[in-house]
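Researcher: Here's a chain I'd like modeled. Treat it as a single chain, no partners, no ligands.
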Amino acid sequence: MNFQEAQLYLDSLQFHKIKLGLDSMRSLLARVGHPETTLRFVHVAGANGKGSVSITLLTLLARAGYRVGLYTSPHLSSVRERFRIGDQFISPEKFAELATRIKIVLGEEKITYFEFTTALALLWFAESRLDLVILETGLGGRLDATNVVTPLVAVITNVTMDHEAYLGNTVAAVAAEKAGIIKEGVPVVSGVAADDGLAVLRRTCHERHAPLYLYGEDFLSQSGADRLWDWIPVHTDLHGERHESLRCSMRGSYQIINASLALATVSLLQRHGFSLSPETLRQGLAEVRWPGRLESFCLHRHSRRVVSDTQGKEGEIVCYLLDGAHNPAGVESLVDTLNHEYDYQRLIVVWGAMIDKDLAKTLPLIGKLAAVLLLTQPEGERAATPEQLLAHLDETTQTRCRRIASVEEALHRAEELAETGDLIVVAGSLYLVGAVRKLLLGELVT
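Model: Modeled as a single isolated chain. Structure tokens:
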């Protein structure tokens, strides 16, 4: 297969619904030579923040000179975004070569999209002579296709309600699924809040003799002026010193927690031979980029050119904020960031979401802030229609809504409405964010 044929084959696997379980994955990996056994991993799970923690780890370790692979999901517009080594994404030729190999091994057997991409990632990483792989779970943890590895460190960012149809309808049940990545004796870094989820995490770590290093207890962050902050190790196992006057490149106060989790993980990796200087950590944190997650930029209205200085260009500039927030905790964080870190005249929101998300809790949160709320529908059979979205808003908010089925039309309408000082926010689903980002900035992977 060439790249286009490999994409079409992979897309055909979308007809096979989400399937939690490890039998197919283990069988396939055995038939392709168990690539996972030749690699060292950090395994990252959580409801929110796992992508931010993963990209931060990659950035820090790569800056220190290590060859590090990163596997994440979902992608914004190209499947190649899921696979990278340092700042290089997998090439179309290598993707096609490995996809062909997997297809031949499978024969008539059908697996899920995520199982296929996970196997492809492990094969690519195994032949690339890496120092470490950052492996992000897709859904949950216990039965996630990535849970075939024994990592050096496991990270569980947080536990909130999400994917209830697959993970359970209580915080404790969701926590039990995410805690499934915990392996015997493997240290765990976590930012899980002090609730039923933390009780499950503590119990699982105790049963599996896995040391637990918890944000707020074993390591801390302390915020200062001008968005600077300090990272403070408390537990004696966290080798290294206090790091002061750090700056996160990504907006949002919660990114300090994500960065703190990454720093604790780096500290634990020292016992496995990874060494990062304080200056490397400081510079790396300032360089982290994670497209589509609180990503802000301004474009010239006609040329679509990115501009950094908007002064004296009234009417010529349109400013955007793209964020993949899709569950209650994520949208709460987005709203908090808009309230405390952004200045704008009016908020114009373009919103699209999957029908299986908690629309009753997420949409009203952002709807209260929006001067205009444009409801649209990203591609995908799970996408909610604008009419379905509208039903979750009260009458007052509905008067500020417009229903526009086409994503491109909704974006065009938002730009028409935007005046000097306004901010266009695109959120509700990474599928929507990916489509809009491609329209505005082009492909992330070329």
